[in-house]
């Protein structure tokens, strides 16, 4: 996984030198996306795509989990489609309770554990959707995790997730972190703010595009996120309030922006020794040997550490909440697109 360079936050120096390559990237990527969109195939159920326009984690997986559970609470059967980044087997798989992290990938594994929603893993989302629908005919809608640029699949609803890092310097790769220009936000249905205030997001859009006056601010949806009680990896029934942890204490994270996790822990008053890994890193037990226990980690990382023999390992879940009015609106859109 690409490590985010610091110059992506500034409009000078290396970023400016790379601008010609950004223009070339834009021409090539737009041609490719348009070419794939012409061959797009439509699934026989309303399809929601969740993604982002910038490189790195923005909270797509927590958003997928929260959205799926909210729709399930409304009585909808949601089917999840994912490519399963980092998995060893590239074939189409229908997820079962016996599926492993190695077979389906860490993020799909976590989504399934949290939602129990019908799920198919494959790079070609259309074929995955048909296979999942055949196995689960009562699916009401599909959610495609991390599929904004997967234009081979037609979508009824597009959702972009923006994280705490925002859009960096607002420039396209490789001069900045963006896969698509800021004006792509004009064409999506909703923009979910994850650890970034809506007003801050609007200011960024205005500074990069100059379109704040015509931008539909009603499509901006806040995602409320906070850390829940820690859960023991060896005994999931055992939970501890974060405030009960005292130093020495460690935290690890193998996500796109590990510092976001550490900052949330520190905001709860914890003093930490930290160790970061690349996103989707397959953590080995020996890599934690020098860290003072107890060791806190994200739920995503915990999916790869459950078999460790070490004691005092704790997963820290995220509690996420989306506004009821957003779920109401989304449900109406799903019903309107039901075929």
Number of strands: 15
CATH architecture of the largest domain: 3-Layer(aba) Sandwich
Structural class computed from helices and strand pairing: alpha/beta
- Biggest sheet overview: 9 strands, mixed
Number of helices: 10
Q: Please, how many domains?
A: 2
CATH fold-level assignment of the largest domain: Rossmann fold
Helix content: 25-40%
Which spans of ≥5 residues are poorly predicted at pLDDT below 50? none
Mean pLDDT: 93
Quaternary state of this entry equals single chain
Beta content comes to 15-25%
Strand order of the largest sheet: 3-4-2-5-1-6-7-8-15
| N-C termini distance | 38 Å
CATH class of the largest domain: Alpha Beta
Order of helices and strands: HHEHEEHHEHEEEHEEEEHEEHEEH
Function: Transfers the gamma-phosphate of ATP to the 4'-position of a tetraacyldisaccharide 1-phosphate intermediate (termed DS-1-P) to form tetraacyldisaccharide 1,4'-bis-phosphate (lipid IVA).
Catalytic activity: a lipid A disaccharide + ATP = a lipid IVA + ADP + H(+)
GO molecular function: ATP binding; lipid-A 4'-kinase activity
Family: Belongs to the LpxK family.
């Amino acid at each position: 996984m690409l490590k985010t360079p610091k110059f992506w936050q500034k409009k000078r120096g290396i970023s400016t030198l790379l601008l010609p390559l950004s223009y070339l990237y834009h021409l090539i990527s737009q041609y490719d996306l348009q070419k794939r969109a012409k061959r797009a195939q439509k699934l026989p159920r309303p399809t929601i795509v969740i993604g982002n326009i910038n490189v790195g984690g923005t909270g797509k997986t927590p958003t997928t989990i929260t959205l799926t559970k909210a729709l399930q609470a409304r009585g909808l059967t949601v089917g999840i489609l994912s490519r399963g980044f980092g998995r060893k087997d590239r074939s189409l798989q229908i997820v079962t309770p016996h599926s492993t992290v190695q077979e389906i990938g860490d993020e799909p594994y976590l989504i399934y554990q949290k939602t129990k929603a019908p799920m198919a893993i494959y790079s070609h989302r259309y074929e995955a959707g048909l296979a999942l629908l055949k196995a689960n005919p009562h699916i009401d809608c599909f959610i495609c995790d991390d599929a904004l640029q997967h234009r081979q699949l037609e979508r009824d609803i597009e959702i972009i997730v923006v994280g705490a890092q925002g859009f960096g310097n607002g420039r396209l790769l490789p001069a900045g972190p963006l896969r698509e220009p800021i004006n792509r936000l004009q064409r999506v249905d909703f923009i979910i703010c994850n650890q970034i205030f809506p007003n801050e997001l609007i200011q960024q859009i205005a500074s990069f595009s100059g379109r704040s006056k015509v931008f539909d601010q009603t499509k901006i949806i806040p995602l409320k996120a906070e850390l829940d009680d820690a859960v023991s990896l060896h005994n999931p029934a055992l939970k501890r309030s974060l405030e009960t942890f005292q130093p020495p204490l460690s935290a690890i994270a193998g996500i796109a922006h590990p510092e976001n996790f550490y900052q949330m822990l520190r905001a709860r008053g914890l003093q930490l020794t930290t160790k970061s890994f690349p996103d989707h890193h397959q953590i080995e037990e020996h890599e934690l040997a020098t860290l003072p226990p107890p060791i806190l980690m994200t739920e995503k990382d915990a999916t790869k550490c459950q078999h460790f023999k070490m004691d005092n390992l704790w997963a820290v879940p995220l509690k996420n909440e989306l506004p009821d009015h957003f779920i109401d609106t989304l449900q109406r859109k799903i019903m309107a697109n039901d075929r």
